[in-house]
Design a protein that fits this description.
six-stranded antiparallel sheet, 16 helices, globular, alpha+beta, seven-stranded mixed sheet
Length: 682
């Protein structure tokens, strides 16, 4: 496109529950805009966005896919995201790259688990939101009821921007029309309600509107429309059928004319400040002439191109052959090749403007959440971190073939680099390597990728539950480490206090030693010893969290005072003081949603109750009954097979971390009895 400018750029993320038709909608938008010759099919594995062999095999998206198309002089960059809760990390990551979230809803199944989560996450991120009701061509729909449910769930801000017409074969737009035929509701009433909602954002326009009684011009409505979107005062509802094409061109028009450009959306939440120090809010300006600021929201390890960093440009112009810095790094890299992405295809370009999404390859320093910039004036700038769902589902893995252990760790490192919701743990007490994800589907996909792409076969088994330890009281202790072995000895004494913090607060280390009782050069060793003890666990071998450790006194020796002595004293003092502070073991509690036939509900709720869980709600979801509840993760080992048995194979479930809670006394006794404290041979 000739003479592209930031005001002619849009960025959107297609988000929503699995099977809502996001990938098919992306394909329809690409085809209708002329970016591709014709629509591919998810079933046939021929879409632009689901290009990975595993996505074709699984029949749904596993990662976010990027693409773009031009319409009416506007370039629209999009991210097509996975919908199943197991792959929510990819969808959340894409929110950092766009100004607008298109929450796609399946007209047949209505509001589903990921619908609510993505509406919430996009709102918290300050994104403009639009709701797209897809699959309006399907039979037995109750669209008025669905619109009512949307308003009940998400507020009266959900306003009709168009309506299905002519038996859902097309749509009628209601912002610029107050007459026309629609399959339900009144075009005139929808038009009037929408105008009333928009003019509330502009006092002068509202006064003129009330005085004249005539509709403001489209030009006059643009600014208050954008303001209402930014404030969440307006969440437009649109109808489409990605399959038949109904409403697709109208959606393209909305994106080009009404979706915010980089200067109209809420500014991305940048912060400036050195790690661990104070930070101040900082706004990037979508000005092509300013210094470059770009944010890496996705990393891909490609077998041919190596590490690919996918980024959104927020300020300045990224150009081919330019020198850029990664974060606080002092050594720049050269942008040897600059790409736009179209699914799996890389399109080489010369520059990318604010609002555009692109990629660079073979830059090893790039990591997820990195900020790219071209001036040291932009050192210590970072984007507010996204809150990713915490991976709770786990598998202990080991290689089938001896000697593949190092390969395993290398490959797991690459997978973790690509997916913020995939974690790898190594438990020294059990020699277990544990992979954690958001659910069975998530882990199954990772195992399939390791086998297919990396030819690595693994054995799996249930892992230890990720319990945690904490304390419920305060305590003080003094520990002296003294060792003589013929030559120079070791001496270090540490006095410290431990006290509990609020759940989820983490760990604080405080040094209030005065008078050089512990020389400053040894305090890092003390802190290292404290942290090591907390990481290893004290009463049951699980990390200790939500505590403050304050070192208030100690002693050294002019000859025998050494780092190793203070490290050991700090570690042993921490182990001792934790035991005196009424320690407890915490277990992860997860939110569970189960979809099952109504006939199985009694058995399922009884099963949850028998596993220390409780039901928080039930409802209908696309012909199935949805059960919401909370249950300890420890009770869900082999839940897939239990669910299959109770529902005749027709049930499914998803998990999301909720909180940590104290285990029952009998469970704590069992865990502490099993734990054999291990210590270093010093």
């Amino acid at each position: 496109m000739a003479s592209l400018r930031p005001e002619n750029i849009r960025s959107i993320a297609l988000v929503g529950h699995g099977a809502a038709g996001k990938t098919t909608l992306a394909e329809a938008l690409l085809a209708a805009s002329g970016a591709i010759a014709g629509k591919g099919s998810v079933d046939k594995g021929s879409t632009v966005c689901d290009a990975d062999p595993l996505e074709k095999e699984f029949g749904h998206s596993l990662t976010s896919a990027l693409g773009s198309f031009d319409w009416q002089g506007v370039r629209i960059h999009f991210a097509d995201t996975p919908g199943y809760p197991d792959f929510a990390g990819q969808a959340v990551g894409a929110l950092a790259a766009v100004d607008t979230a298109l929450v796609v809803i399946n007209a047949q199944t209505g509001i589903e688990l990921s619908t609510e989560r993505m509406m919430k996450w996009a709102g918290e991120r300050g994104l403009c939101r639009m709701i797209v009701i897809n699959k309006i061509d399907c039979d037995n729909l109750d669209l008025p009821k669905l619109v009512g449910e949307l308003r009940e769930r998400f507020g009266k801000e959900c306003m009709l921007l168009d309506l299905p017409a002519h038996d859902r074969n097309d749509v009628v737009e209601v912002l610029g029309h107050d007459t026309g035929d629609a399959d339900f509701a009144s075009v005139a009433a929808a038009h009037r309600a929408l105008i009333d909602q928009i003019v509330e954002e502009d006092e002068e326009l509202l006064a003129q509107y009330l005085e004249d009684g005539t509709d403001p011009s489209p030009e006059a409505l643009h600014a208050p429309f954008e303001k209402a979107l930014r404030a969440g005062h307006l969440i437009p509802i649109l109808f489409v059928s990605a399959k038949t094409g109904a409403g697709v061109r109208e959606l393209l028009d909305v994106l080009a004319k009404l979706a915010p450009n980089p200067a109209e959306g809420n500014p991305p939440p940048f912060w400036r400040g050195e790690a661990g120090g104070p930070a101040e809010a900082f706004h990037a300006e979508p000005d092509p002439a300013k210094h470059v600021l770009a944010h890496v929201f996705k990393v891909v390890i490609d077998p041919y191109m190596g590490k690919i960093g996918v980024f959104r440009v927020h300020q300045g112009t990224v150009k081919k052959d330019q020198q850029l810095f990664v974060g606080d790094g002092k050594k720049p890299f050269k942008v040897a090749h600059l790409y736009r992405l179209q699914g799996a295809e890389t399109i080489e370009v010369n520059e990318l403007l604010p609002g555009e999404i692109g990629a660079v390859a073979k830059v090893e320093e790039i990591e997820f959440d990195s900020v790219l910039h071209d001036s040291h004036d932009e050192d210590h700038i970072h984007l507010k971190a996204l809150e990713f769902p915490l991976p709770m589902a786990g598998l202990a893995v080991e290689t089938k073939k001896k000697g593949d252990e190092q390969r395993l760790f290398d490959i797991l490192g690459k997978l973790a680099m690509e997916d913020p919701s995939f974690q790898v743990e190594r438990h020294p007490t059990t020699n277990e390597t544990v992979i954690r994800g958001l659910g069975d589907r998530h882990l199954k996909a990772k195992l399939a990728k390791m086998l297919q792409q990396y030819k690595l076969e693994l054995d799996t088994k249930p892992p230890r539950i990720p319990y945690r330890e904490t304390i419920t009281g305060s305590a003080e202790t003094t520990y002296r480490h003294k060792k003589q072995s013929g030559g120079a000895g070791q001496f270090g004494e540490v006095a410290l206090k431990i006290e509990p913090l609020a759940r989820g607060a983490g760990f604080e280390f405080v040094d209030i030693v005065k008078g050089g009782a512990i020389p400053g050069t040894f305090m890092p060793a003390v802190e290292k010893g404290v942290r090591q003890a907390l990481t290893d666990g004290v009463i049951a071998g699980f990390p200790v969290e939500d505590v403050r450790v304050t070192v208030f006194d100690g002693k050294t020796h002019s000859v025998d005072g050494k780092e190793i002595a203070f490290y050991t004293a700090g570690r042993k003092a921490t182990m001792e003081v934790v035991k005196n502070a009424r320690p407890i073991v915490l277990e992860p509690i997860v939110d569970i949603e189960i979809l099952a036939p109504e006939a199985a509900i009694g058995d399922l709720t009884g099963d949850l109750s028998g596993k220390r869980g409780h039901v928080t709600g039930t409802g209908q979801r696309g012909g199935m009954t949805a059960i919401s509840g909370q249950v300890p993760l420890a009770e869900l080992n082999d839940y897939q097979s239990r669910l299959k048995s109770l529902t005749g194979g027709q049930g499914s479930y998803s998990l999301a971390f909720s909180h940590y809670a104290q285990v029952p006394p009998n469970v704590q006794q069992q865990l502490t009895a099993q734990y054999q404290a291990h210590d270093e041979d010093e």
